[in-house]
Amino acid sequence: MRVAAIDCGTNSIRLLIADVVDGRVIDVSRRMEIVRLGEGVDRTGRLSDAALARTRKALIGYAAEIAELGITRVRMCATSASRDASNAADFRAMVRGVLGVDPEVITGDEEARLSFAGAVAGLPAEPPYLIFDIGGGSTEFVTGSAGVEHAISMDVGCVRMTERHLHDDPPTPAQIEAATRDITTAVETALAAVPGRSARTVVGLAGTVTTVTALALGLDAYDASRIHHATVSRAAVAKVTGDLLAMTNAERRALPVMHPGRADVIGGGALILSIILERSGHDVLIASEHDILDGIALSIALPAA
Question: Which Gene3D superfamilies does UniProt cross-reference here (predicted)?
């Protein structure tokens, strides 16, 4: 079954067109655009006109590809920014007008379930798992073996932490310390709700994790095939985090693995990643290129997934 899955988060909007065969997701096309839908939401509580326009432009391109391939099974999920915004109805109307289907503004629990399903499919590692997905506005923490057993969503993400704390270029030690306190409080709350410290395997999802992994591996270009299921030590993550926070936006943008739309918020995301590993007591991370987008694709073909 060929399906189209769209994940619209705080920072990026992504499209996966895939064939789902015997419970496996076989890629036809993956696309990602940084649209920063959640820009300013933490401060204003609203999606800005500019952010909606950027998202609409990306969605028009996705809709054209879906139509060209004749795909009728489409699911779009929207996460943190559109949950938080007071004008979410404007976002839904825009999506319906462009894509022809309503976006599902999913709960943190549903986001966790879809992320878990996408991450564990084909994962060559031993359960129980701690899986976390660092987004622009929130981070989901999930534990389980065959399925989700515990999940929680915390309002710490790379965009939210950058807008809230990391104002200078590069951020000052005081700003980093404020962000560290904020993130640590959220991570400790999450680990009190989900038994992540007792997991045997830790899996990190989304662009912050894969970019930090690419930097830790010393890649000279972003290579998803080398990043997917790569292992990275806590010490390597801490070093990359320190390096990123010490750089200017221009220096981060010049890194060969860096998406230019991620450069200004990657320091905040890396800090979240580093603190999760530190506070959970795990020394090794597995990075996954398969995440909520794959979970959405599976849910279309296998509604119980």
Answer: 3.30.420.40, Exopolyphosphatase. Domain 2
